[in-house]
């Protein structure tokens, strides 16, 4: 098993882009959930790339487009005390072009 820290994400191309988008879209405020959110985004994008469905996926044969509903479903296990969910979704959309 490999453990990847938030600090290591800065050296990862996608991780660095996600961190930059988080700042641009106010995806974090207090910092309570930031490291978990960013690591979850990387994992969520890998699952999506591999064609894994989510509970919001309508067609289980093809990968679902990353709509707002799809992103929110895939990130649903992450709690944000500040309620920065809209900024988090905006950051994901910027990184993915969705």
TrEMBL record:
Protein name (Swiss-Prot/TrEMBL): 2Fe-2S iron-sulfur cluster-binding protein
Pfam families referenced in this protein's UniProt entry, alphabetically: Fer2_2 (PF01799)
Domain [2Fe-2S]-binding: 5-93
Coiled-coil residue spans: none
InterPro entries: 2Fe-2S-bd (IPR002888), 2Fe-2S-bd_dom_sf (IPR036884), Aldehyde_Oxdr_Iron-Sulfur (IPR052914)
Gene3D superfamilies: [2Fe-2S]-binding domain
